[in-house]
Design a protein that fits this description.
Blueprint (H helix, E strand, L loop, with lengths): L1 H9 L24 E2 L2 E2 L13 E9 L7 H15 L5 E9 H13 L5 E4 L8 H6 L14 H4 L3 H6 L8 E3 L8 E6 H7 L13 H9 L4 E3 L7 H4 L4 E2 L10 E4 L4 E4 L4 H15 L5 H4 L13 E7 L6 H6 L3 E5 L4 E2 L1 H4 L3 E4 L5 H14 L3 H9 L6 E3 L5 E3 L27 H9 L2 E2 L13 H19 L8 H14 L2 H18 L1
Amino acid sequence: MKKLLAGILAATMMVSLCACGAKPAETPASKTETAQTETKTETSTEATTESGATSIVVYRACFNNGNPDSAKTKEIETAINDYIKDKINVQITLFDVGSGEYQEKANLALNNNEINLLWTAAWEDTIGTKQLYAKKAAYDITDLLPGTDLYNSMDANQWEGTKYGGRNYYVPVYKDNVEGYNLMFRQALVDQFGWDLSSVKGLADIEPMLADAKGEGLPYPFLLQKTAMFYRFYIDSFDFFTGDANGDFVAVDRDTNEVVDTILEPEYLEYCKLMAKWSALGYISEDEAAKQTTDTTTQTQDWAVSWWTDVPNNDEADGRYGQDVTMVKCTKNYMHTDSALGSCFAITANSTEEQAKACIDFLGLLYTDKALADLYTYGVEGTDFTYDADGYVVKNDSPYNHSMWESASATVVTAEASSPYTPQMYKDFNGSAVVSCASGFQFDKEPVKDKYTACQNVFEEYGFMLETGYFAEDEVEAKLAEYQEKLDEAGYQDVLSTFQEQYNEWKKAN
């Protein structure tokens, strides 16, 4: 079974986008006949409309509705243009694309110079922030931002922490823009066994609770959610600045502010041995290494303790998992580039300066005007949503269906009644985070791209298995040595030295 699993995971490959080339010529957005579902919509052929407004084409991904309705999108587009026409000299053409098709359609339009403003994220593939930066497809807005309503809508740390190469290319959606983790306990078991959660100061402190859960016959006392968790549980010690969960073999040591080989660090040995021990005791299921737990396992009563990404309102986990859960903080919260760019906008490099400024004007209004923010997020009041007695949004059954996190700032978008929040919650949450030592640094993998990908494949064969308790505790040290050897064969030392060179250069410049 172990050989079979190792073989399967060793075959896992990560697809990398080859991205290079010069910045496209700055030309106005051209005519497009990109289809939204069955209907074709034309974008403006001119940068300026008859009324003198600057025309911009906006693409956004829809995560709440797989098949956005083009007629409804056109209705929202008209409503937005009617609302903004007396406030800013901008007119938008809006495309709403289902998330399953977004990468393909947005990339096609991008390659055809048919977008001026698009939604993206650090975790997206092919159309993500890393790929756009590598292709020189994002407009450098550093010199356009100061003094604008958009710039003043967020604190300076947001702009500093989202820089690539010391420059601003992206506009973060102001939401939970920091990264930190909690241990999550099923409250029913806390009550049943009388667990004292105040005694939990570190990961090892939950062992007696896992023993109770195992004795109760639960299949997943410690549910890892088929995730290698060193990357998350040890962010107090390391900044894993690559943003790759399967690339935690390199990080910045927070104490020394130096790039290190994390496989050789004592924390990695400590973690892998603990996972091996808990696996042998039956606290971690073999399903984790086999990636056979499901995304809905957390909605069952089959587990006792798991993990949760810290957010301003952690009570929303109760609704997500259909049961009462309680959080215990297990790391600090950190602001770094990838966390702050978990949802953002990019102005395309093919846009003219006039169009880039128009995009900034539009986003500046979107991030400061509640009526526009709600319209852009939820649609038309009375048709697509209503406000309840407490002023929260109640969605109707509308084909236009978005959420705050992928639309605009939490300080201006009205919260939904089903998941209420206040702007101050987000300000406090983001404002209390530690600005990471590597915040603003972006590693250029291009010089060692193939070797880095090869190292990620080695991680799947060794690192993932070590971090999910696949190997016996007395095997861990030998497997770690073998892991390092295989990494070196894949070109790891070149990858590490390139990381170190780039990070040292970045530190000098900052």
